[in-house]
């Protein structure tokens, strides 16, 4: 039942986002809301439990750290402008996109986030003793967060430098993977699933599998690389030499 209370809270938060888009005529703030959907599930679960285990405290700390960092970063990055993805979605769904966005953008993401957030609910609710899977989950989360933060910092610095608007970042973590930030995000969700493994529910594995699929085939790698070739002419050569997702030695360096 608590898990369904989280859905209600997430939907109400999504409605607030839709109302804001109705006023501002922009939609990029849903990116900032995405990670906060998961924090809502975690905190709604914690509020309805009488006692919190050490695992629950660990998960709450991890979700807070990850969700606030990502939300603040995306808010700063998108401030005063709209991501081109939403302009494309708007053009494909006129007329009355202001109304259609309620379910195309906000309700859809709210429902998806609720499904993916199940390991957070399961980990916080679990009363099982901590074990080696929790340690593995924490280590994977820390590695994923480090990978994501460093990749975001390197890309931000690169984009801020003059003359890099049409260039390709192929140094740092971006030398070993074309999307190290998405790889870090993927590790984070496998870490949450390991922290929830003690709940003995097979559903906790649906979340990282779904997130990995989305990052690879829907909203991450696939979507990003649909248009980047026209904006950065050297990207085709970068693709030839660099793994798309899992870090690996650049092909040129292997010769």
UniProtKB/TrEMBL annotation:
Transmembrane segments: 7-27, 33-49, 56-76, 96-116, 128-147, 187-216
Keyword list, A-Z: Membrane, Transmembrane, Transmembrane helix
Highest taxon listed in the record's lineage: Bacteria
Pfam families reported for this sequence: DUF1295 (PF06966)
Lineage of source species: Bacteria, Pseudomonadati, Pseudomonadota, Betaproteobacteria, Nitrosomonadales
UniProt-listed InterPro entries: UstE-like
PROSITE patterns with a match to the protein in the record: S5A_REDUCTASE
Full protein name: DUF1295 domain-containing protein
Annotated signal sequence range: none
Gene3D superfamilies associated with the record: 1.20.120.1630
């Amino acid at each position: 039942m608590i898990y369904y209370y989280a859905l209600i809270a997430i939907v109400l938060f999504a409605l607030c986002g839709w109302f804001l888009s109705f006023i501002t005529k922009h939609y990029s703030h849903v990116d900032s809301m995405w990670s906060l959907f998961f924090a809502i599930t975690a905190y709604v679960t914690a509020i309805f439990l009488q006692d919190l285990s050490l695992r629950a405290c660990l998960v709450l700390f991890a979700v807070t750290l990850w969700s606030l960092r990502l939300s603040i970063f995306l808010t700063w990055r998108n401030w005063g402008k709209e991501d081109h993805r939403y302009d494309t979605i708007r053009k494909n769904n006129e007329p009355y996109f202001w109304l259609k966005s309620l379910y195309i953008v906000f309700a859809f993401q709210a429902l998806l986030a609720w499904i993916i957030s199940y390991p957070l609910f399961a980990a916080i609710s679990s009363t099982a003793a901590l074990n080696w899977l929790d340690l593995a989950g924490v280590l994977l989360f820390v590695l994923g967060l480090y990978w994501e933060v460093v990749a975001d910092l390197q890309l931000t610095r690169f984009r801020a430098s003059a003359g890099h608007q049409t260039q390709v970042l192929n140094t740092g973590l971006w030398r070993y993977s074309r999307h190290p930030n998405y790889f870090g995000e993927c590790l984070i969700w496998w870490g949450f699933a390991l922290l929830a493994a003690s709940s003995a529910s097979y559903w906790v594995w649906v979340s990282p599998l779904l997130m990995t699929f989305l990052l690879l085939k829907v909203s991450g790698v696939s979507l990003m690389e649909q248009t980047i070739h026209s904006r950065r002419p050297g990207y085709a050569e970068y693709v030839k030499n660099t793994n798309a997702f899992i870090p690996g030695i650049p092909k040129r360096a292997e010769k």
